[in-house]
Amino acid sequence: MSAVKWIDTRWRDWRAYRVRNAYYGACPACLHDWREHLPDEGCSECQYEIDHEAPGAPLTSCSEPAPGVTF
After folding, report:
1. CA 68, 25, 17, 48 torsion-angle sign
2. How far apart, in whole angstroms, are the C-alpha atoms of residue 48 and residue 41?
3. Is 5 in a helix, a strand, or coil?
4. In whole angstroms, how far apart are CA 38 and each of 9, 54, 71?
5. What is the pLDDT along the chain (71 residues), one digit of tens a residue?
6. CA atoms within 13 A of residue 32's CA, in its CB half-sphere
């Protein structure tokens, strides 16, 4: 099996796994998708808004733990 075909197969397997096992929904604290909540760093979307000084950005990044597997 060529390397490209192997990578393509693994990519499709990973995407299929994510579709079957992803948790969807929004965090009640920051209203961002749970998939944005990184296990060690909190909400990456909150942090992005803070870093880019977006209007209405929170003062600190949300640190609520996701209720299930998000990655």
Report:
1. negative
2. 12
3. helix
4. 26, 20, 9
5. 687 777 778 888 877 776 666 666 889 999 998 888 887 788 999 999 999 999 999 999 999 887 766 55
6. 22
Helix (H, G, I), strand (E, B) or coil at 48: helix
Q: How would you label 1-14 residue by residue, b for 16+ Cβ within 10 Å and e otherwise? A: eeeeeeeeeeeeee
SS3 track for 20-42: HHCCCCECCCCCCEHHHEECCCE
Structural element, H or E, at residue 43: strand 42-43
Q: Is residue 13 classed as helix, strand or coil in its secondary structure?
A: helix
- pTM here is 0.62
Of 30, 31, 18, the closest CA to residue 68 belongs to 18
pLDDT at residue 25 in the model: 81
